[in-house]
Design a protein that fits this description.
The structure holds two protein chains of two kinds.
Chain A: H1 3-22, H2 24-49, H3 54-66, H4 69-94, H5 102-120, H6 128-160, H7 164-184, H8 218-237, H9 239-249, H10 251-256, H11 261-288, H12 300-310, H13 318-338, H14 344-358, H15 360-369
Helix pairs in contact in A: 2-14, 3-4, 3-13, 4-8, 4-11, 4-12, 4-13, 5-6, 5-7, 5-11, 5-12, 6-7, 6-11, 8-9, 8-11, 9-11, 12-13, 12-14
Chain B: H1 3-31, H2 35-38, H3 41-66, H4 74-93, H5 99-126, H6 131-154, E1 168-169, H7 179-184, E2 185-186, H8 188-206, H9 208-218, H10 220-225, H11 230-256, H12 270-280, H13 285-307, H14 314-317, H15 320-331
Antiparallel strand pairs in B: 1-2
Helix pairs in contact in B: 3-8, 3-9, 3-11, 3-12, 3-13, 4-5, 4-6, 4-11, 4-12, 5-11, 8-9, 8-13, 9-11, 12-13, 12-15, 13-15
The chains are: A mainly alpha, B mainly alpha.
Chain lengths: ~375, ~350
């Protein structure tokens, strides 16, 4: 290749990279990809430093996430929950409200689902019709409970100036403690050895259409995608969504145009908590079938923060990000049995993803340093 | 803020504090709570022990925030401090570690925290990372890699019994009634924390370095004009905050005597409570330590309730500190932050 050729190729590459850095959507996609790759790379370094074989680890991750139909069903199961909790986080973050309490709202919602289904079950006919009615009632209960549990810190932020990051984290601890106490004592199922509620009736379940596994139905994923679509439309096409996003990004302008910023905060939190409630309902009905001590329930609401950030808090972007995290969690489940690498590594990698997403400047500077992106910026 | 404003706010603070005390007194009187069984010398001593990790993290956090950087990663740094101190004491002394090994391990944990905090500071200051998101990331990293370390070493997220710090008995002074057992026959880390809190106050309010830190957060332009490098001041404050939180985690471990990595780990929100402690203490190191004592006391109520025969489920009593945090934030929520917090500063040379 001649010098001028390589120069031209370089120019094309520079322009492409520069264009990518400019284009907002592409840029965010690039940052998300770079963050994920960088996090996995650091994760592999840690694996190697701890004395394991990174190649084996990587193979375990892929086998665990997509290796066979069981693995895929498991990945999609976790994905359904991550998409829902991720959208819940995205709603709040988009509006500039840091709802770190999705985990708590998810727990409270799921518990409300189980309790209301157990309570209504004797009043309704058994069988498919009753099952659907109970699922609807249970989900409504979760939406109300999750929404209310998020509205509370929203109101404290709006009207008393209490930092929502800290209040929602405290409410996570309180949700786990109180629900844990309730399933240990007052709501413990009869004859249950473990601190669990009674099981919800057999007929209250989503039908197995594609995968024949007990704790996942493709309908769970469909519910998640429908919620994504609804949220995306609300955020982009309604006055409420517009108020939410503008007051998050340009509070002064929003206030000037007559938006009540305080009420918007409360509404945003409520909306976010309602979606977290749906996530809790899907988890309770599809995955568990009863409620256990939430101290032992996986931290879908925490990891959702990473899901949402990776998606640049875009409701649609949450779908691929949720798939990535679903795959990671699924790989973790697989590794627990088939590998001696501690699964806590997966949590660490989640942290690394968040760290890299927090510092996009890192990649911009790296791109500049290597010459990609030319003299832009 | 005008003087009248300030007075009004303080009146509000004072008023709400009085109201809280009144409610507490009323509750004690109406419910016939055996107060004497609850507020014992042992309780005060335990509360002080429980308060030290929170106070250390809070002092670190307020230095960072005073300098204009919000270190929301205190919780994560505490987890790393505890896990690294546990790992270090195991590597140095195995299952028969001595007190000397423990002190060495605490030092090692602080040294490692310094390195982590330096990386964190570079990301925040040089690479202008989002302070909230990066701080959350530190927490996530701690929740992942803290227990990961434990599993690598012990094959379990919890360590076996390691070594706890011995009480330091000061001959003579320990015999003083009430004060003796509380201050002179307890963990030496309690006294260390008290000394650090006072030292942090002196540095912040009585030395030029303290004024630099305050100026970096309130009016970076003026500090820059005066010829002091704002970025360097902020680096120092953030690294200090990470090291203090790491020390807090190590102290927590030294008091507990073993590492717990299940759930939200043994730190269990203490870093977040630390943030609230310095807000409550109005960014004053001594005030923050006092606020930490409040949360430490609430944390230790459970034992008192048991000995006093008050029958409340543990699971619920354990939630008191978290509930108190929400009350404090609601009543004192609008604390005045340094004006330049969260803004990156670029010197115009």
């Amino acid at each position: 290749m001649s010098d001028s050729d390589s120069g031209r190729a370089r120019g094309v590459l520079d322009r492409a990279a520069a264009g990518m850095l400019e284009a907002s959507v592409l840029q965010r996609l690039a940052i998300a990809t770079a963050s994920t790759v960088a996090a996995l790379a650091v994760g592999l370094l840690v694996v190697a430093a701890a004395g394991y074989d990174p190649a084996v680890f990587l193979r375990n991750v892929f086998e665990g996430a997509f290796g066979d139909s069981n693995a895929i069903a498991r990945t999609l199961k976790f994905t359904s929950i991550f998409v829902l909790t991720g959208v819940s986080v995205a709603i709040a973050f988009r509006a500039g409200v840091f709802n770190i309490g999705v985990q708590g709202q998810f727990v409270v919602g799921g518990f409300a689902t189980v309790i209301s289904i157990l309570w209504f079950a004797p009043m309704l006919p058994e069988g498919a019709v009753g099952g659907v009615a109970l699922m609807v009632l249970g989900t409504l209960a979760a939406i109300v409970a999750g929404g209310a549990y998020a509205a509370f810190p929203g109101a404290l932020k709006a009207y008393a100036g209490a930092n929502e990051i800290i209040t929602t984290i405290m409410l996570n601890f309180i949700a786990v403690g109180v629900v844990g106490f309730l399933v240990e004592g007052p709501f413990r199922g009869e004859g249950q050895r473990a601190p669990n509620t009674d099981r919800i009736p057999e007929y209250v379940e989503l039908p197995q259409l594609v995968y024949d596994v007990p704790d996942f139905s493709i309908l769970g994923l469909v519910v998640a995608l429908v919620v994504v679509a609804v949220v995306a439309v609300v955020m982009a096409r309604t006055g409420f969504g517009y108020d939410m996003v503008t007051s998050g990004h340009q509070e002064a302008a929003a206030t000037y145009s007559g938006v009540d910023a305080k009420r918007t905060i409360v509404k945003t939190m409520t909306f976010s908590g309602m979606v977290a409630g749906v996530a809790g309902a899907v988890f309770a009905i599809m995955m568990q079938g009863y409620y256990s001590d939430p101290g032992g329930v996986a931290t879908y609401g925490f990891d959702a923060i990473a899901v949402s950030l990776l998606a640049a808090n875009n409701p649609l972007g949450v779908v691929p990000a949720g798939l990535l995290f679903g795959g990671l969690d699924s790989a973790g489940t697989h590794m627990r049995i088939n590998s001696d690498v501690p699964v806590q590594l997966i949590d660490g990698i989640v942290g690394l993803v968040v760290l890299f997403v927090a510092a996009p400047e890192l990649f911009r500077m790296a791109a500049e340093r290597t010459g990609l992106g030319g003299e832009k910026r | 803020m005008s003087v009248a404003d300030y007075a009004a706010r303080n009146r509000f603070r004072l008023g709400s504090a009085v109201a809280l005390v009144a409610i507490a007194v009323l509750a004690v009187a109406l419910l016939d709570v055996p107060l004497g069984d609850i507020v014992t010398i042992g309780f005060v001593e335990r509360s002080l022990r429980a308060a030290t990790p929170i106070a250390l993290a809070a002092i670190g956090g307020l230095y960072a925030e005073k300098s204009g950087v919000f270190n929301i990663g205190l919780e994560g740094f505490m987890i790393f401090g505890a896990a690294n101190a546990a790992a270090a004491v195991w590597l140095i002394g195995g299952d028969s570690a001595t007190q000397g090994d423990l002190w060495l391990a605490i030092l090692a944990a602080v040294a490692i925290s310094l390195v982590y905090a330096a990386i964190f500071a570079v990301l925040l200051i040089r690479y202008e990372a989002d302070q909230i998101v990066a701080g959350l990331a530190v927490w996530f990293l701690g929740l992942g890699f803290g227990p990961f370390t434990a599993v690598i070493i012990w094959g379990n997220r919890n360590s076996p019994g390691l070594v706890g710090i011995d009480a330091l008995t000061v001959p003579g002074l320990a015999g003083i009634p009430v004060l003796g057992p509380i201050l002179f026959n307890t963990s030496p880390l309690v006294m260390l924390t008290a000394v650090l809190a006072v030292a942090a106050w002196v540095v912040l309010y009585r030395t030029k370095y303290g004024y630099w830190i305050q100026a970096a957060g309130e009016n970076p332009e003026a500090l820059d004009t005066a010829g002091v490098n704002v970025t360097r001041v902020r680096y120092a404050a953030v690294i200090f905050s990470g090291a203090m939180a790491g020390l807090g985690g190590a102290v927590l471990l030294a008091h507990a005597g073993s590492f717990t990595g299940t759930g939200d780990t043994m730190v269990n929100g203490r870093g977040w409570i630390g943030i609230v402690a310095y807000l409550f203490g109005n960014y004053n190191p001594v005030g923050a330590a006092a606020a930490a004592l409040l949360f430490g006391g609430l944390d230790m109520l459970q034992i008192q309730f048991q000995t006093a025969g008050i029958d409340l489920p543990n699971r619920l009593v354990n939630l008191f500190p978290y509930a108190a945090v929400i009350v404090v934030l609601t009543v004192w929520g609008s604390t005045r932050m340094p004006s330049a917090v969260g803004e990156t500063y670029e010197s115009e040379e």
